[in-house]
Design a protein that fits this description.
single chain; 253 residues; elongated; mainly alpha
Length: 253
Amino acid sequence: MVFSSSTAYHDETNIKRLLKRCEEMSNQKFEEQVEIDWRLEKYIESLENMIEELDNKSYKPTDDVMASYRKRLAFLKGIVNVQQVENPLDKMKTYQATPKPTLGSNSNRDIEHSANETINTEVRDDLFGKSESVLRKRTGASVLKSDDSTDLDDILKYHHTMQEKIADNMLVLARNIKEQSLIAGNIIRNDSVNVEKSSQLADNNIDHLRIQSDKLQENTRRTSQCWIWILIIIVLVVFINMVLLMKMTRKKT
């Protein structure tokens, strides 16, 4: 039993180390904007197998700990899928659909920050680059065909379409932020209720301890008084016996 417990602890330590390593590699890919390292996908596959093996063991962490490991693993898988998408708008949608840990580690927060910056930059560059390309193409066509009104309508339609896509993405992002805020608010409220209950229980225990302490002092006082009275009676009995003995000895003499 001790061996199984130590083995489970060793496996959990390896999972924590590999999770941290994968999160650092994912964050590095966004910060340096380089291609995905093939080792990251292998690490994630190994990590998934290790988590499943740990879950099947008799000595394993609590359900909350195992759930947090699975959420971090799902987040890493989603990040890999995001980095494999080439189109910036599709990449943003894929990232928004990626499940994110409610209370992630510092590495997860760094990945989210780097991913948001990188994806937003790519979307902005893509939109501005397409706008300039369309303007150049439409301007050249207008010079050749003398059809300025049609070109302007096409450009306006394109910008309107891009604005609608950006607005939809912003709505989805705002909805995700709202959901995460509600979840965090519920967790904080539950923690506050638990703290209040613990505080109330502590106050009740203090009151109970005070009552028991008063009872103990009262019992101690009564016990000491009883012993005093017993000693007084003993002294009186001895004194009376001594007096009687002295009288008896005087009569004999």
